[in-house]
Amino acid sequence: MNLSVRTAEKRDVSKILEIVNYEIKNSTVIYDYEERTYDYQLDWYETKRRDDMPVLVAEKDEEVLGFGTFGIFRPWAAYKHSAEHSIYIHKDSRGLGIGKILMTELINAAEEKGFHTMIAGVDSSNESSIEFHKKFGFKEIGQFKEVGYKFDRWLDLTFLQLLL
Question: Which residues constitute the signal peptide according to the record (predicted)?
């Protein structure tokens, strides 16, 4: 596969939005109910740029197949060395190793920016994502029971952590 990873540009926002909205509508990967608008996603992208946080896209033949990003874990000064990341792959591009490539790039970016740890919040039923993170050295730290509610059921959230 001729896959490349690059820093996202404004022109990628619509494809990122498509990926995000699919997950909102069809999965528990994102604990949200309402699809996002282009303006919302553009504001998200511009905030990431302003905060000097990476948004990376994986593409093949100029088609965005997935993206990854991170930001400060919580909005208080003492958390400034802790990053929470997200990786999303287009539904038709899963199982091709795109997530591995994006995760490697995000870990490298977090180290370069001087972060001490990376954190993942994963829906507890998403065993493949939990195992994916463990392959990169993430350790399961804990689980919050029934903190989300979507598709007429309570959702548990598992936190994983990688010390850089």
Answer: none
